[in-house]
Amino acid sequence: MSPATLAPSTAPAPRSRSAHALRAGTVHLLLSATVAGLVALLVFGAWFPGQLRALTGGAELFWLLVGVDVVCGPLLTLVVFNPAKPRTELRRDLALVVLIQLLALGYGVHSLSYARPVALVYEVDRFRSVSFADLDEAENDQVPDWAQPWGLSHPRTVGIRKATSSDEMMGSVDASLQGVEPSQRPSWWQDYALSVPQVLQRARPLAELRSKHPQQSALIDTAVAQAIAAPQTGETADSTALRWLPLVSRRATDWVVLLDPATGRVRGYIHLDGF
Questions:
Q1: Please, which pLDDT band fits residue 171 given cuts at 50, 70 and 90?
Q2: Backbone angles phi, psi at 165, to 5 degrees
Q3: How far apart, in Å, are the Cα atoms of 115 and each of 48, 100, 134, 197, 254?
Q4: Which of 65, 103, 192, 209 is a Cys-bridge partner for 108, taking CB atoms 3.0 to 4.6 Å apart?
């Protein structure tokens, strides 16, 4: 027997299937996290800005999407990856995992696009955050471009016009009884500037909100400080001058908007019951 035969082998042992699968799953996880980061820029930068993500549930929907898509994809890769498989079979299995993940991602982003707030609508004595999914399907052809689900614009503030006839008024009342408010019907929207006089007439003084919620003075102070931090031309910098009205959405009725007393512009939000 030769010395070469007697010498211990120094060649590295082949890595186990689990090691290969773990490496593939880790790479898949990093790629999925990168895609999730890009989606987060869209969701939080354009579709659910600021505190509206809490009002409309955008954050919860996004993290549900991340939990399902980013976690399940790499886990499936861990399960199916086996270097002992024929290359064609391995590629097919991985392609199927990616396809499933992309379909889940597409469905999740589609759901977020329909749930995002497209308009803040002033109606009588409150504001309503309206998503594309809230809109009356019979008026889809009247939805403006900026309110389309895949748009990149922030929610716009609009008002509600008056009925042009008694028949239209009765039709609106009938639709409201069936759960379709004028704020959900784009044909009733009007430029917010036309509604500002009514908004300012209905808006309540900040002192009233403080008296309704004496235990939440710190929360109110913080929101007011943020609201007056960057006034536009003609707007107040007086923290006591701001006014407010209730703000509701499909999933919440315990918010208020802070309004400028001169322009009526929405300058901030507070998570407090305004009724």
A1: confident
A2: -160, 165
A3: 9, 23, 8, 30, 19
A4: 65
pLDDT tier at 5, thresholds 50, 70, 90: very low
Q: Give just the sign of the alpha carbon dihedral 55, 61, 62, 67.
A: positive
| DSSP strand pairing (243-248 vs 126-131) | parallel
**CB-facing half-sphere around the CA of 142: CA atoms within 13 A:** 12
Compute the chain's Rg from CA coordinates: 27
Q: For residue 165, give both structure tokens.
A: 């006839």
**Identity (one letter) of the amino acid at 261?**
P
Cα separation, 150 vs 58, whole angstroms: 15
Task: Determine the Cα–Cα distance for residues 128 and 223; give it in Å rounded to an integer.
Answer: 19
* Whole-prediction pTM: 0.83
> What confidence tier does 22 reach under pLDDT thresholds 50, 70, 90?
confident
